[in-house]
Design a protein that fits this description.
single chain, six-stranded mixed beta sheet, binds pyroglutamic acid, 213 residues, 8 strands, alpha/beta
Length: 213
């Protein structure tokens, strides 16, 4: 199966982004049975969604898994939904800080992701790693790229499994906070994402899963 895996560049004053590091680590040793394409997205209101969509157009993946950092979360967070809202709590890397705007004017209020979220959760937990289903990817870039991805896939009639996983901070990021925030090692994050990819690449995963499954 041809899978597109994406992460984000660092943002918000951090030198690293766990999602970028996980993508680079998995790209070095892709899982068997998966033709992996990767992209690192800019944390930029305009170019972030554009780089993701051009990777979809170029690689024609059969599934898309996007990763991002959610500093402060204590578990691997499998997102279930993306909402039609831009309400940046900080500026992006290009200085945009938009409030209370739709991503797609007149677009649906929200899209469910089309990944087998419950199966991914169960598989990660079965490996002894902390994971959760999440009902909000926030209102910053991670939510935005997920919404734009799901919207364009739907508009272009390309219904394929696509969704988003938020990763906790790395220990070196957590150590710089006072008080420290929850963190997970790169090895743990990489293991969890490899499990998610395995679930996505299972034969039944060609189906579109409503997020309730
Ligand atoms: N996390 C941010 C954007 C980039 C990233 O890694 C977010 O949660 O929206």
């Amino acid at each position: 199966m041809n899978v597109l895996l994406t992460g984000f560049e660092p943002f918000g004053g951090s030198q690293v982004n766990p999602s970028e590091q996980v993508v680079r680590a998995i790209a070095e040793r892709p899982p068997g049975g998966i033709r992996l394409e990767t992209a690192i997205l800019p944390v930029d209101q305009e170019t972030g969604p554009a780089v993701l969509w051009s990777a979809v157009e170029r690689h024609r993946p059969e599934a898309v898994l996007c990763l991002g950092e959610a500093a402060g979360r204590a578990a691997i967070s499998i997102e279930r939904v993306a909402i039609n809202l831009l309400d940046y709590r900080i500026a992006d890397n290009a200085g945009h800080q938009v409030s209370d705007q739709p991503i797609v004017p007149g677009g649906p209020a929200a899209y469910f992701v089309t990944l087998p979220v419950r199966a991914i959760l169960t598989a990660i937990q079965a490996a002894g790693l902390p994971a959760e289903l999440s009902l909000s990817a926030g209102a910053f870039l991670c939510n935005q790229v997920t919404y734009v991805l799901l919207h364009r896939l739907q508009e272009s009639g390309r219904l394929l499994p696509a969704g988003f996983i938020h990763l906790p901070a790395l220990p070196e990021q957590a150590a710089r906070r006072s008080p420290p925030i929850p963190s997970m090692s790169l090895e743990t994050l990489e293991s969890a994402v490899r499990i998610a990819l395995q679930v996505i690449a299972q034969p039944s995963a060609g189906k579109i899963f409503p997020s309730a499954r």
